Amino acid sequence: MCRVRLFGRVCLIVGSLASCTVPGEPDRLSPTAPDPSGRPPPVEPDAPAATVPVDIVLWRSSLSVNETLRGTVADSAGRIVPDSVVTWNSSDTAVVHVSEQGVLTGVSEGEVTITASNGEGAAESVLFVNEYAPILASIEAGGEHTCALTHAGEAYCWGRNDYGQLGHASEDICESDYAPYQVDCSPRPKRAAAGLIFRSLTAGFYHTCGVTQGGVAYCWGRNEHAQLGDGTTRSRWQPAPVGTTLRF
User: Fold this and answer.
1) Cβ atoms within 10 A of the Cβ of 146, count?
2) Tell me, what's the pLDDT at 176?
3) Cβ atoms of 134 and 156 closer than 8 Å
4) Alpha-carbon dihedral sign for residues 185, 188, 237, 149
5) Residue 194 to residue 157: CA distance in whole angstroms
6) Is the distance from CB of 178 to CB of 186 less than 8 angstroms?
7) I need a surface site. Which of 47, 68, 137, 213 has the fewest CB within 10 A?
8) β-bridge pairing 155-160 and 122-130
């Protein structure tokens, strides 16, 4: 059924009948012109069924403990499927809890696999949970390690750690391109020099130095050439104050 306006008349078309009215005159129903081919009018196809989700959209690959993240699913064309009935599952609820609505909550540090299924298809996505996900203000790249400062002056470091250049204990063993072929490392950012708040931070090849808010310089890492400035040639796994009364 549709309504059209023709030369001052308003016509209401229902099936093969058309009712046209002129202001002040009664309605009159008359047949519309038939299709010369004799074919019946086309039938509109039914709306396609909901697409099976083939991908999980988490927008991020990590979150912090006690932080929440909403998961959604997408079809084969990458379009979000908002009304699909999905069953969510976490491979380790001690790390991430996921609600029936797809809201993920970080519980503890670790790695989990999140699964979404609707009985016809399923998809998986790996999610990492960190103890704390700070907002970084600056970043420094060393030889084979990287350090960054938050807006609050906290230091975080990751990468190679065979000389203590990260300022914290190693979390893993990483493969190296040259001897020794396995070295201590941390693949993710971790708080370094705990208890110290820095104004600036610089990463050398195998050592790191920072200046605190009070102007005191600390260094840690490789020290065979006395580059840490602490009066020794011993490598340091924890920050050591530079041996001077100078303030920087």
Assistant:
1) 17
2) 75
3) yes
4) positive
5) 11
6) no
7) 47
8) unpaired
Listed residue (112, 102, 105, 111) closest to 74, CA to CA: 102
Instruction: Label residue 6 exposed, middle or buried (CB < 10 Å: 0-12, 13-18, 19+).
Output: exposed
10-residue mean pLDDT profile of the chain (248 residues): values are 42 41 46 53 49 67 82 79 82 92 89 84 86 81 94 93 93 78 86 92 96 96 95 94 90
CB 98 within 8 A of CB 90: yes
Read out DSSP for the chain?
Answer: -EEEEETTEEEEEETTEEEEE-TTS--EEEEPPPPTT-PPPPPPPPPPPPPPP-EEE-S-SEEETT-EEE-EEE-TTS-B-TT---EEEES-TTTEEE-TT-EEEE-SSEEEEEEEE-SS-EEEEEEEEES--PPEEEEEE-SSEEEEEETT--EEEEEE-TTSTTSS---EEEE-SSSSSEEEEEEEEEEESTT--EEEEEE-SSEEEEEETTS-EEEEE--TTSTT-SSS---EEEEEE-SSS---
In single-letter form, the type of residue at position 133 comes to A
d(CA 121, CA 74) in angstroms, rounded, equals 12
In Å, how far from its chain's centre is CA 22? Answer: 63
Q: Is the dihedral of CA 95, 190, 57, 101 positive or negative?
A: positive
The pTM score is 0.52
Q: Which of 69, 70, 66, 68 is nearest to 107 (CA)?
A: 66
